[in-house]
Amino acid sequence: MNNLYHKPDVDGILERLEKLTPNAQRQWGKMDVAQMLAHLNAFLEIPLDLSFPKRMLSGRIIGSFFKSRYVSKKRFSKNSPTGKNFIMDGQEDFEKERTKAIALVQKFHDNGPEKCTRQPHQFFGKLSPDEWAIVQWKHFDHHLRQFDV
Question: CB under 8 Å to 35, separation ≥6 — which residues?
């Protein structure tokens, strides 16, 4: 399964990030391309222990029931709900966010599983480092497809 600990998968995500342009048009959703990059960055900061969102009450109750689908081979659905901490509705700087995304993806890969967070996902709960790597790849893939790269 694709993940951000697998060098060819990382290289593919980095190539796709390089192909993004500030004028890329979304195929679904509400975020523009710079907001999408900021959204990806905010989520990738969690397994890097740069951000510490609180567990959601709904996640504590039902998150574990949905976890297996979340870390499966199945793609994320278009227009899936976004946690309120990850909704970017301000003006974001495309080049700054793209540069940050590239650096964070590379850092996640270079850090490897041993430096991955042990904090729970805010909705799904405990994820192993490999599950974080799968989810991060799927999340990047989902949003890069959203902008047709």
Answer: 88, 89, 90, 92
Please list, in sequence order, all residues whose beta carbon lies within 8 angstroms of the beta carbon of residue 41, skipping any fewer than 6 positions away.
Answer: 97, 100, 101, 104
- Residue pLDDT, tens place only, 39-51: 999 999 999 999 8
Would you place residue 9 in the very low, low, confident or very high pLDDT band (cuts 50, 70, 90)? Answer: very high
pTM, entire model: 0.92
* Cβ pair 93, 54 in contact under 8 A: no
Please provide the size of the chain in residues. 149
Nearest to 147 by CA among 29, 27, 31: 27
8 Å CB contact between 49 and 117: yes
- Confidence category of residue 14, pLDDT binned at 50, 70, 90: very high
Looking at this protein, which amino acid is placed at residue 2? N
Which of 18, 15, 8, 30 shows the shortest CA–CA distance to 99?
18
Look-up of token digits 């497809």: 145
Helix (H) or strand (E) holding 132: helix 129-146
Contact between residue 56 and residue 83 where contact means Cβ atoms under 8 Å apart = yes
- Residues 130/9, Cβ–Cβ less than 8 Å: no
